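Open question from group meeting: does this chain pack into something compact, or does most of it stay loose? Before anyone orders reagents, we agreed to write out a predicted structure and look at it together. Recording both the input and the output here so the notebook holds the full record.
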Amino acid sequence: MADQQAKEAARNKNIEECYIKIPKSAVMSEQKEQSVKWWQRERTETTKGAITKAFFPKIEDRLKFRINGTPHFTAIVTGHGNIKAYLHKYKIIDDPTCLAEKVRKRCNI
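Structure tokens returned:
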């Protein structure tokens, strides 16, 4: 029966072609591409994250790296957190070059 219907379909030029089945991988790939474009657009429009943007101007390039975004890594890359330059900037410590042990004693950190 399947062979008979296949032959009939091959002979009949009036049968409308229908390709409604799309592989899941194609849908996922399209969704990922659209998400990256949206993320890039949002990131371009904001004034925040200038330091991070300097390291990774394009979201696509950032996604190629497998970075473990630990708090320490983020503090180093962004210049925020419990690091001497940051603490000095906000007048928490007097000297950004003093040793960590001295900082803790002087600043009670």
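Observations to bring back to the group:
The longest helix spans residues 24-45.
The chain has seven helices and no strands.
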